[in-house]
Amino acid sequence: MNLKVGDILRKLMALGTLATINQRLDTDTAILIANEFGFDAKLSSLYEEEDIQKDSTEDDKANLQPRSPIVTIMGHVDHGKTSLLDAIRHSNVIAGEAGGITQHIGAYRVKTSTGEITFLDTPGHEAFTAMRSRGAQATDIVILVVSAADGVMPQTIEAINHAKAANVPIIVAVNKIDLPTANPEKIRQEISNYGLLPEEWGGDTIMVDISAKQKMNIDSLLELVQLKAEMMELKANPNKHAEGIVIEAKLDPRRGAVATVLVQSGTLHIGDNLVVGTTFGKVRAMIDEYGKRFDKAIPSMPVEILGLNEPPQAGDKFVVLEHESQVREIANARKEKAKADALRPKQHVSLLDLNAGKAKHLKIILKTDVQGSLGALCDALERMSNSEINLEIIHKGAGSITESDVVLAAASDALIVGFNIRPDAAVEKLAETEGVSINVYRIIYDLIADIKAAMEGLLDPDTQEKITGKAVVKQVFKLSSAGTVAGCTVTEGKAQRNVKIRLLRDNVIIFEGNSSAIKRFKDDVKEVEKGYECGISLENFSDIKVSDVMEFFTIEKIARKLVNEN
Ligand code: GDP
Asked: I need a surface site. Which of 3, 93, 171, 374 has the fewest CB within 10 A?
């Protein structure tokens, strides 16, 4: 823009911001300042994944090829997630690798009769949603493990809601059917209460009875995963620079920074330059969990890579670029930005945003003290949805607000609403750093009223026009100093300077806008009453003729009330 720093700082000061030359401006301020100097600024970030220069034809349909599915196992504690991961690992080790020492790298592949499946080795919905809150989604299919002896438990429900919030399909593995107390039918009954209706009952949820311990039916489970994956038509283009995400990372005393990455598209090769979050490097080696070395990794393949500068974070995205200078530059720029961002609080949706009209889809996580109030509140809240604002309770439960709730809220941009409970200090702190809004209430009426008020703020207001005055043009003067001035008589109401004005000729609207001045004799006035004469000039309009009618009007915004449409 070719401006002097001093000029910008002065302008900032005029806008009420005291800034120094080294300070980063937030985007709103930066755009505003550009405007102030007559520039039209558009936001475009240099260093985000989505803005790294890419050939847009690379992901054309014609270039896509099938890839294998990526699966996460979820479920209540002790229902057999780890046992299932082990059973799958041992019964279907990729040929030739059996007997080797396996090393936990965070993900592994197994072979089935119809292809490979990649399993993420950190079971549970916490890790899954933590990744998602960082913008990364790796999982295609969730296997929900439910113990046939214990039934649906709180974390089972959490897992269902976390998977649903991420739009990931669920396959239910009813585990421990070897136990005499197992009652798989009862599980189907229970789970159908949470929107997962078994296929055999006409629904679309695949349910399989298994025993992880006795390794029963593991193969059919895997076959069904493949079947589901086939229907989902999972595809990626393997013929381009690789992209993907970090599953795990650590600093190894001998090997340096080690990261397990999952290739999501393209092919990763030894020697590739990659930028990963705020770090970068060149791939020196790629190893799978059986210790086998590879020189390339195709989509859906997890590999441990060596050669990064420092360990990235789980959930970071990686991108391969042509030149080392590019990855270094981007990583360094991101690091600078991360430093600055750390000083600024994050912000997800809050009741205030709703009032400011930011979201028309309101997602809520509802936690209450007891089951009874949960049902009642849920009903009351869900009934408030209407055709303009969709209120969705993405997770609910009786019990305290947990860190997992906060992470889910952050990942899904939801609001946490608590009734008769308070978050503990650790949860409050996490909510603060994640920018998640928690609202707690002791009185149901207050809770409903607040949500209702927020939703009403979200409705577009009705507008209503009100004519406040009329004047008829008697004479037109063309003045060299003041442009065209119409000599008028006010015939109704008042002629007012600070309201909208419309010029009518034979009832046709010729002009609508503002007046630039209203004068009584030589003086500028704010308003002129009915029966008096005055001179009126219009802003940027001079084609006024005798007998034209000036209509003065205001537009009132009328806040709307929420109407129950059901
Ligand atoms: P996680 O907490 O969900 O990972 O559960 P684990 O895999 O650690 O299993 C919890 C307990 O259930 C362990 O004692 C397992 O041996 C047992 N278990 C897991 N699967 C089965 C099964 O199919 N049948 C029986 N009888 N026990 C099982």
From this structure: 3
